[in-house]
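Hi everyone, sorry if this is the wrong subforum. Our group has a chain we'd like a structural model of before ordering constructs, and none of us has done structure prediction before. Sequence below.
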Amino acid sequence: MNLILKKISSILTIILRSLFQLIRDLDGLFTWVTTFWHPKDPIYGQCKQRGVCCKNIAVGISKRMNNSVPLLKIINWWYSFVYNFTLKGWYKNDQIMIYSCNYLKNGKCSIYWRRPLICREYPRSKRIGQTTMPGCGYSLKQKDPIK
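Answer:
Right subforum, don't worry. Here is the predicted structure as tokens:
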């Protein structure tokens, strides 16, 4: 009986996670569509494939959500369950939650071909400004040529 309940629980978890990932992907699709009318600054450099961005995923949150513990718990559950992220820290004054990705294996993304939009768009970010992580190969400013 206990084995049957575990099996049912496992199947329901897979179904729910798949459903929420579909919702995540649809949200990503709609977000991607909006990029056609939002200007983008150029990005310079290239990825060094160190996984720096995957170890420090910044999720900006609104002031209203930042002041509501129940909403923060929902946000954290969403990113933990649907995105498979682990919360590293919450910086209330900066309105940011920092996550690491559990799909990072040996410094590489194990779901690269189907990674979420938040990963595909890095280092572009609409919510928290534009910056790169230390050690990242990308830059948002063109380096001055050596004279």
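For your construct planning: The helical segments are 2-34, 52-55, 63-66, 69-81, 117-120. Residues 90 and 140 are 25 Å apart (CA to CA).
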